[in-house]
Design goal:
about 110 residues
Length: about 110
């Protein structure tokens, strides 16, 4: 029985290169969190300024235009989040290597049954 290991990524990066990659990743994550903060603050202001005192006293009438900005901006926010976290969301950094090992172990196990 052979033990196969596959090195998918080049692991011989210098510490400076790894630092630069990590620094850029942290900046992207920070940018996403700032985007969330601006989204929440601006939409709270827009929605609260759109609701007049008469609407609060007489009951709230649903106005679809009131929620169009949060909805469409929210779609953009989700896209931003997927661009920052998405590549590791479904397929982690070692996903391919783990799947290859899993299939090889399954095939080896079925060979002996």
């Amino acid at each position: 029985m052979k033990n196969y290991t596959i090195d998918i990524k080049n692991r011989s990066q210098s510490s400076d290169e790894r630092y630069n990659i990590a620094f850029k990743r942290v900046k992207r994550i920070k940018g996403f969190y700032v985007h969330i903060l601006v989204y929440v603050l601006v939409n709270i202001f827009l929605i609260s300024s759109s609701i007049s005192r008469e609407e609060l006293e007489g009951g709230f009438n649903f106005n679809p235009r009131l929620f169009s900005t949060p909805i469409f901006w929210g779609i953009g926010l989700v896209a931003h989040g997927l661009s920052v976290f998405g590549r590791n969301l479904f397929f982690g950094s070692n996903w391919e290597e783990k799947k290859i090992q899993e299939f090889m172990h399954k095939e080896e196990a079925t060979k002996w049954e």
